[in-house]
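User: Hi! I have a protein structure encoded as tokens and I'd like to know what sequence might fold into it. I'm fairly new to this, so please keep things simple.
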């Protein structure tokens, strides 16, 4: 049997900002091997943020909804609920009922503890991973009163989840909503006798510190990759610092890399040019030597032909003397 799954996490400002690249799919590659980018077009929003940067969207909603509350660095700025079941459940109910499942879950969250859809930063369904699931990122808003006793709404992560068994109550309410809407799922089992461990013990068991190192490495390795100025403006908190760090510095680094590459290529080209010049010089010298050899060969040919001619002339003279009975040897001796 499949289970109705709902999980909540609390996030500080910096943690909230880091949710956006994954949830809104603003990057072109991810360390999560389960994400199939070719299917990302199947993802859809039940509430789409105006800005892909969740802090910018947070500020917009805070001002628009006149939300009160003093926040500091470690305050809870936002929470995120992840709603899903298992792959078999979604395969069995089909596409239409899958959409209804997430729609009813979204409406449940909007009404839970009088949260209101206006305080939801983003609600996106991911269909490009192994199992369909929905991320609902929201500002934990509660009813309060100002100093004059007038009703107001304020941001309060602690107050929103102040009940002792707040997550168990969430599971109960969500499961009742699932049943009411006709989905045949079971509620996850809770264990009241669970032996709780200290935070430090849990960190050792789960290899927390090594995981944090890996997380930092992956954040640096898979920083957001922007496809246009629009995607940069939507995701980034558009300040001189962010422009310098995330836009200008990468461009300058790339320009410097290309300049160094051009410099190395010019050095290689200079070496090649020297070799080409040397080859051209040797080629000219070779042509000159070839011309000299051809000239000497012609002179040798002339001398050779002259020698042949003189030998033939000598043979004719000898033959004439023989016919005339002149002994050239005696003539030679008498001459001596």
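Assistant: Happy to help. Inverse folding works backwards from shape to sequence: for each of the 336 positions I chose a residue that suits the local structure. Here it is:
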């Amino acid at each position: 049997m499949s289970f109705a799954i709902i999980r909540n996490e609390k996030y500080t400002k910096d943690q909230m900002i880091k949710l956006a690249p994954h949830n809104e799919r603003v990057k072109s590659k991810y360390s999560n091997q389960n994400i199939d980018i070719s299917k990302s077009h199947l993802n859809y929003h039940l509430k789409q943020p105006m800005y892909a940067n969740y802090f910018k969207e947070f500020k917009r909603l805070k001002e628009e909804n006149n939300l009160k509350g003093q926040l500091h660095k470690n305050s809870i700025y936002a929470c995120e609920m992840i709603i899903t079941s298992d792959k078999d459940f979604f395969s069995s109910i089909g596409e239409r009922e899958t959409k209804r499942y997430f729609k009813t879950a979204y409406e449940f969250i909007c009404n839970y503890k009088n949260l209101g859809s206006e305080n939801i930063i983003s609600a996106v369904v991911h269909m490009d991973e192994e199992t369909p699931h929905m991320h609902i990122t929201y500002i934990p808003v509660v009813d309060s009163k100002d100093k004059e006793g007038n009703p107001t709404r304020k941001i309060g992560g602690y107050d929103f989840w102040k009940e002792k068994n707040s997550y168990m109550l969430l599971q109960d309410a969500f499961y009742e909503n699932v049943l009411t809407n006709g989905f045949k799922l079971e509620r996850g089992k809770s264990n009241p006798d669970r032996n709780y461990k200290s935070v430090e013990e849990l960190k050792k068991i789960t290899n927390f510190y090594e995981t944090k190192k890996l997380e930092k490495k992956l954040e640096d390795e898979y920083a957001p990759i922007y496809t246009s100025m629009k995607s940069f403006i939507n995701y980034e908190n558009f300040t001189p610092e962010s422009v310098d760090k995330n836009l200008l510095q990468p461009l300058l680094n790339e320009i410097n890399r290309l300049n160094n590459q051009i410099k190395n290529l010019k050095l290689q080209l200079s070496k090649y040019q020297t070799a080409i010049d040397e080859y051209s010089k040797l080629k000219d010298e070779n042509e000159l030597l070839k011309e000299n050899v051809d000239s000497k060969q012609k002179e040798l040919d002339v001398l050779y032909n002259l020698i042949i001619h003189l030998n033939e002339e000598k043979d004719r003279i000898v033959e004439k003397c023989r016919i005339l009975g002149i002994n050239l040897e005696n003539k030679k001796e008498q001459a001596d």
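A useful reference point when you look it over: The longest strand covers residues 3-11. Feel free to ask if any position seems puzzling.
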